[in-house]
Write a structure and sequence with these properties.
Helix content: 55-70%
Structural class: mainly alpha
Order of helices and strands: H
Oligomer: single chain
Largest sheet: none
Distance between the termini: 89 Å
Shape: rod-shaped
C-alpha cells in the first residue's frame, strides 16, 4: 500500500510540474512575440520605358 501511495505521489508531482511549466510558457514566454509581422507585398511596380 505504501509503495502505491509513493507511486501516486510521484505521478501527481510530474503532472503538476508539466502543467505549471506549460502555464508559465504560455503566460510569460509567448507574450514577447506580440510584434505583428508584415506580409510581403505581392507584385510590384514595373518601370516601363
Amino acid at each position: 500500500m505504501e509503495l502505491f501511495l509513493d507511486f501516486l505521489k510521484e505521478v501527481l508531482k510530474g503532472i503538476i510540474r508539466v502543467t505549471s511549466g506549460h502555464y508559465f510558457q504560455m503566460k510569460f514566454l509567448e507574450e514577447r512575440k506580440t510584434t505583428p509581422r508584415r506580409h510581403k507585398q505581392k507584385g510590384g511596380f514595373q518601370n516601363k520605358k
